[in-house]
Design goal:
Blueprint: H1 13-25, H2 30-33, H3 45-59, H4 66-75, H5 79-82, H6 84-94, H7 101-130, H8 135-151, H9 161-170, H10 179-182, H11 190-196, E1 204-209, H12 215-230, E2 234-238, H13 243-255, H14 259-264, H15 269-282, E3 287-290, H16 297-311, E4 316-320, H17 335-353, E5 357-362, H18 366-369, H19 386-389, E6 392-397, H20 405-411, E7 421-429, E8 434-442, E9 447-458
Helix pairs in contact: 1-3, 1-6, 1-7, 3-4, 7-8, 8-16, 12-13, 13-15, 16-17
Length: 459
């Protein structure tokens, strides 16, 4: 029995030669195959060199025939290596028509992919033999190798406008009954959804604030609202908070029972019934929680791809919070560059999975030094390229974090103290208007609620 190591890798010399022969018979044939197969996909060296030379001639708008290809190969000192002019003559004599060139090109590409699979398999075997204490990291590397192989099969080709227009009309909007599966994802807050049109797929949305303002609670509210209203499949990565704490917050928001009483188990009989009802409401929701204390972009990517495959796709990803993630280790001594690497990785992942990623971010202390304390985009600039990479940047601001009730009443005797009043400031919106949304935060319930209409600022 022949072992796998002794077998010849998959290749089809006849298909490779048929592609080159077709191009020699009809110079237009190369335009039909250059998006299917690349020089490195050819197994035989002489066929790879000949195809690469054909591409060079085509790029210079020069005709492709035996004479010009011979000259190009001679210029590259490869003519003798491929077998000289007899090699080119034999190809054209054996195939008199370019019909079917795309078929032959796909055979060449298929066999090249099989060879890549063998290479990836060998790398995975080597990773397993090396072992080490980081099992999750090894599995993540293996999964990324496989996914990179799959991504290589996607053709990043030019798309006709008519096809994009067809996609536009086929894609549902935020109010469509299908929006929960393939359209925009609702935040659950009416004015915010009006302003943003929901969370758009492939967007990176950053929710930034100083500690204690409620950004974690808001993200949990986003997750719950999308899962309830649209049956959205939501993944939550809570790096700072344990999963049981997140469950306490969900139960508090759903039942209306103080989160502290839930955590301490201090519940009346009536509250017990309300908690059971809340559990029944939350139980069928497709929310998946990961409370790993250390998460890198590659691990996040592997986990999300695995989950998407297992549950049939994802609709929303929540990350709490961005600066607690780890980069590749390349910028271990430069935190700003590491955060930039993370934010770019999240944006690429949002596009790759076609899912909105909503990530919390911690603001610098600059807002504390200003008289108004209202966050600004410049407060993010110490955090790498978050502002540049994000499609939407929102700030949470609560005046009651800076002025207590006594100070407020002495300063504003005729105004109501803004307890829990939260300004959600959309400071950046790559594809739409910015503005402010007013919400009310019930901190003891970890729940935000709509308050007043949106105040639009810019278009």
């Amino acid at each position: 029995m022949v072992s796998a190591a002794e077998k010849a890798p998959p290749f089809d010399v006849e298909a490779e030669e048929a592609v080159i022969a077709s191009i020699l018979v009809d110079g237009e044939a190369i335009g039909r195959v250059e998006g299917i197969v690349q020089p490195e996909d050819f197994y035989r060296d002489q066929n790879r060199w000949a195809y690469d030379a054909c591409l060079a001639l085509w790029s210079r708008n020069e005709p492709i025939n035996q004479v010009t290809l011979g000259h190009e190969l001679s210029r590259r000192e490869k003519l003798d290596d491929v077998g000289g002019l007899p090699y080119l003559s034999r190809l054209t004599l054996e195939l008199a028509t370019p019909v079917g060139v795309e078929h032959y090109a796909r055979i060449v590409k298929r066999d090249a992919t099989y060879r890549s699979m063998i290479s990836v398999g060998s790398q995975i075997v080597q990773t397993a033999y090396q072992g080490g204490p980081d099992l999750d990291g090894a599995i993540a590397r293996a999964e990324n190798l496989v996914m990179t192989l799959r991504e290589g099969q996607r053709l990043g080709d030019l798309i006709a406008l008519r096809h994009l227009l067809d996609d536009f009309w086929e894609k549902p909007g935020i109010d469509s009954v299908l929006a929960g599966s393939i359209g925009a994802i609702r935040s659950g807050f009416m004015d915010l959804d009006t302003l943003l049109g929901g969370f758009q797929r492939s967007d990176l949305v950053v929710v930034a604030a100083r500690p204690g303002v409620g950004k974690s609670a808001l993200l949990v509210n986003f997750a719950r609202n999308a899962a309830v209203a649209q049956n959205a499949r939501v993944a939550i990565f809570t790096i700072e908070m344990a999963s049981d704490q997140l469950v306490h917050r969900l139960l508090a928001a759903e039942s209306g029972i103080d989160v502290g009483r839930i955590r301490l188990g201090q519940r009346t009989e009536n509250e017990e019934r309300r908690l059971m009802t809340a559990t029944g409401e939350l139980h069928p929701l497709e929310i998946y929680i990961d409370d790993s204390s250390v998460v890198t972009i590659s691990q996040l990517q592997a986990k999300l791809r695995r989950l998407a495959q297992a549950v049939g796709g994802l609709d929303l990803v929540i990350i709490d919070y961005l600066q607690l993630m780890h980069g590749s280790g390349r910028y271990r001594d430069n935190r700003v560059q590491e955060v930039s690497e993370i934010s770019r990785g999240l944006k690429m992942l949002a596009r790759d999975l076609d899912v909105p990623i909503v990530a919390a971010a911690q603001l610098s202390r600059a807002a504390e030094m200003r008289q108004t304390h209202v966050p600004m985009l410049s407060d993010l600039r110490e955090s790498g390229s978050i502002e540049q990479d994000a499609d939407v940047v929102m700030f949470l601001y609560r005046e009651d974090m800076y002025v207590n009730r006594d100070e407020w009443e002495s300063r504003e005797p005729d105004a109501i103290y803004p307890a829990g009043l939260t300004k959600l400031i959309v400071a950046k919106h790559r594809n739409g208007p910015t503005g402010q949304v007013a919400l009310h935060f019930r901190s003891h319930l970890s729940r935000f609620e709509d308050l007043m209409p949106v105040e639009e600022e810019t278009a």
